[in-house]
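Exam prep: given the inputs below (a chain plus magnesium ion), describe the expected output before reading on.
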Amino acid sequence: MTRVLAVANQKGGVAKTTTVASLGAAMVEAGKRVLLVDLDPQGCLTFSLGHDPDKLPVSIHEVLLGEVEPATAVVSTSEGMALLPANIDLAGAEAMLLMRAGREYALKRALAKLADDYDVVIVDCPPSLGVLTLNGLTAADSVIVPLQCETLAHRGVGQFLRTINDVQQITNADLELLGALPTLYDSRTTHSRDVLLDVADRYDLPVLAPPIPRTVRFAEATASGASVLASRKNKGAGAYRELAAALLRHWKNGKPMPTFTPEI
Ligand SMILES: Nc1ncnc2c1ncn2[C@@H]1O[C@H](COP(=O)(O)OP(=O)(O)OP(=O)(O)O)[C@@H](O)[C@H]1O
Ligand SMILES: [Mg+2]
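Solution:
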């Protein structure tokens, strides 16, 4: 059975794309057949995995509009994940989908045609709550919200949770909100911890473990065209491996996701 995970937060720069690439690489290491989906017209996931968004013959844009078979748009990456790539064309797909019936289901329909080929699909949502993110959430079994541990991280969380609730009411009753994933976490200061305590206190939202530490390796990885897991021995990669293992256990035998309790 294929599991579809959406990584979403309308706030920009919270490590959605980094999380998608790193979890994907970790799941390949764990022996899974993984498809990553770039739903962001900026094409950052596509670029960070070594493909030039401006040189794609076809992309997810044509797939969502039903113009090509999904499999024809899939490309491979050096770390073994398959990728449905995106480029700026996707900005136009958003407007074109708005005029169509069942517009929230375009990705779900496409993935149904690919399901037999993959164990896990991970969707990188754009930093907005528009029709593309609704497609990601409608196609997903589970969703994770990366949360950067900085002041005002909670802003927008309420609106995000209302969107999840709408999706559960209208297009995807089975969507499971796994929780917030603390990213860019600095364990040496109390600030990251205070931000998490504040969010956990305000919203009924589990905080997942382990938090992803802030390390310069991530910027290096993006520039190199491979995920952070390709550079051995760094604590960011270790955290993503641990999270990937927890997700696979959760899907396999319903084990609850580990949660993070900041020490006071
Ligand atoms: N754990 C980390 N430590 C240090 N830098 C990180 C970490 N995770 C991500 N970054 C960096 O933070 C920046 C934003 O990350 P990323 O692109 O993954 O965020 P995003 O949520 O996908 O952004 P957008 O909303 O624009 O799509 C990138 O430069 C990335 O390299
Ligand atoms: Mg991104």
